[in-house]
Amino acid sequence: MVRVRYDDVTKRYGNEIGAKDIDITIDDGEFAVLLGPSGCGKTTTLRCLAGLTDPTEGGIRIDGTDITNRHPKNRDIAMVFQELALYPHMGVAANIGYPLKVEGIDKATRRERVEEVAETLDISELLDRETDELSGGQRQRVAIGRAIIRRPSVFLMDEPLASLDAKLKVEMRNEIKKLQRELGITTLYVTHDQEEAMTLGDTLIVMNDGTVQQVGTPTEVYHDPANQFVAGFIGSPSMNFLQVRREAVGSQRVVAANDATFSFSVKGLPTALDDTEPFVLGVRPQYFSVHQSPVDGAAKAEVTVTEPMGDEQLLTVQLDDDNRELAVRAPFDVAVSRSDTIWLGISADSAYVFDAETGERIRQAEASPDTVVPTGSRP
Amino acid sequence: MATDTQPNRDVSRTLLAGVERIHETLDSYGLVPTVTNGIALLFVVWTLFPVYWMVSGSLRTRSDLLATPPKLVSTALTVGNYPELFAQRPAFYEFLFNSVVVTVGSTALAVLLGTAATYGFVNYEFPYNLGRFHLPFLVLTTRFLPPIVTVIPLYVIFDTAGLLNTRLGLVLAYAAFNIPFVVWMLKGFFAELPDSIVEAAVLDGHTELGAFFKIVLPMVRPGLIAATIFTVINAWNELLFAVILTSNTEAQTLPVALATFKTAYAIQWELLTVAGTIAMAPVLLFAFLVREKLLRGFTMGAVR
């Protein structure tokens, strides 16, 4: 059982906050991914666990043992760095076996373990090479080999795939996932790539501005985002956000005079939110229904860009009488081209509502049919 | 100011155009390699002739060496000058020994302290860019003064401390003198090391000190070798401090000994060339042995 626990960890650099009130648990054997834009504090959080950065406040426990003030080498962790940090003056085998050498393990055992690890990573034929003779993917494997050879209880990775090309990235991603399953090592992985995070992680820890925004499974953070930041960060292309207000029209669903008006029931809006107060409506590009003739409750828009992508196409559209742009994903057989007029519909269960001020999600509770009208500029 | 530099720029432009024209003319006759090689050869002769003259002089008799007109190549070579030197000056061994001790000691000290200091400057956080620039610059300022300015106060200090005419005194003086060079030669090498290398070493089980010796130092080896050569040459050839801070064979070094061949009445050329050759040999041999690493050391830190 290796369970990692962050107890309200805060790291300050002078007056600047690196990470704030990090309070998370990573369960035994879990693959947790710290996800967020650059500068969000994810690497700081990871480095606190590695012991390369000392938290200003709070503590970290592994299996209930406080390791906050322990030297990195006594934490039983291994790490793969973004730059890989292979030792250039050593060959491949020496690099992989180095942690064992430092530990004082004899040469024969070391060689045995190195060969074992090399076989797992499919790099047996590279053991006698120098590190500068390797390709990006091979270097990656060597770095991972050096990390797993000690059979650490926690495995840390800081954007290890950042320098690989797209195809290799996908390949290595799958291998890392497979390897982690096989070894069952509790893993904390840092990335800014949401696709990487979604495919790798059992749990995503989404961070922004030094704080944790949401912890959940990939499905949870995608389909049930806690706030506007998470909703916008997860998913590609990003969720569309429209600053809108409610149009009180009694119990009827009515299309407002303005053509750029979506009409659907926005359930459970807080009563404190009066009709003039704007809020944010979030809709993923693929959740619009696209019509080529006027439809009840759909907003009129003009197509400005079309990007065919095989089975589907990505449209950039502009709402009528409005300069706000929306990204819309439509099936390939919807025959539209630049400057065509389309009508966009939204269904209530695929739209998200956020507080305009705080960005917090406003959960839908009870049905109250309303019409929303876009107002002001796009947030 | 702009108008002041204008004529200069015109001159340089004209010069450049002239050189290009010469190059084109030579190229049309296919003479470019011949001319460039010729210039290179001229430079080699210019640099190496004094060395040749000294070494060949050590193998010639006095009259042969001083013949008028000078004989560029001698037919009567002899090794007799070498035993003659040690016969006339039995203390030469002691000078040689002092030089070796002072050079090795001061180089070891300068490289050790300089390396540690540079690593600290570059890898630890200092406010206001102190580590990356200002502190190393401060170290370098100690070399801004002409040595003659510092040697007088140093004499007084060494006198008080009982370091006058001791090898230890010279070791300390030379080390202090050479540390700025070591710092500036290694700065680039340390700055190039990614932080993650040291961190990886720490996670692999090293202490910071262990990581420094086992991982960092091997990685900057070309720089260390270049810095070592540089300090060795500086210490081995130093004359001013040695003349002023030492007074007899207890601590006097080879350069001081060499200076004594020139007296008010005569210069013992044939012995001076022997002594000079012996003085030159160790450093030349050392530099020859590590020549590849030396070249990498001098260029690597600077280029990338």
Whole-number total of structural domains of chain A: 2
CATH fold annotation of the largest domain in chain A:
Rossmann fold
Q: Given the C-alpha coordinates, what overall shape of chain B results?
A: globular
User: What is the percent of helical residues of chain A?
Assistant: 10-25%
Please count the helical segments of chain B: 15
Family (chain A): Belongs to the ABC transporter superfamily. Carbohydrate uptake transporter-1 (CUT1) (TC 3.A.1.1) family.
Protein name (chain A): ABC-type D-xylose/L-arabinose transporter
Subcellular location (chain A): Cell membrane
GO biological process, one term (chain A): carbohydrate transport
Q: SSE layout and pairings?
A:
The complex is a heterodimer of chains A (379) and B (304).
Chain A: E1 4-13, E2 16-22, E3 25-26, E4 31-35, H1 42-50, E5 57-62, E6 65-66, E7 77-80, H2 92-103, H3 107-121, H4 136-148, E8 154-158, H5 166-183, E9 186-191, H6 194-200, E10 203-208, E11 211-216, H7 218-223, H8 228-233, E12 240-247, E13 262-265, E14 279-283, E15 288-291, E16 299-308, E17 312-319, E18 325-331, E19 341-346, E20 351-354, E21 369-374
Parallel strand pairs in A: 4-9, 4-10, 7-8, 8-9
Antiparallel strand pairs in A: 1-2, 1-3, 1-5, 5-6, 10-11, 12-14, 12-21, 13-21, 14-20, 15-19, 16-17, 16-19, 17-18
Chain B: H1 2-28, H2 32-58, H3 62-65, H4 81-88, H5 92-123, H6 130-141, H7 147-161, H8 167-192, H9 195-203, H10 208-219, H11 221-237, H12 240-245, H13 254-259, H14 269-289, H15 291-303
Helix pairs in contact in B: 2-14, 4-14, 5-6, 5-8, 5-11, 6-8, 8-11, 8-15, 9-10, 11-14, 11-15
Main location (chain A): membrane
Subunit structure (chain A): The complex is composed of two ATP-binding proteins (XacJ and XacK), two transmembrane proteins (XacH and XacI) and a solute-binding protein (XacG).
Membrane topology (chain A): Peripheral membrane protein
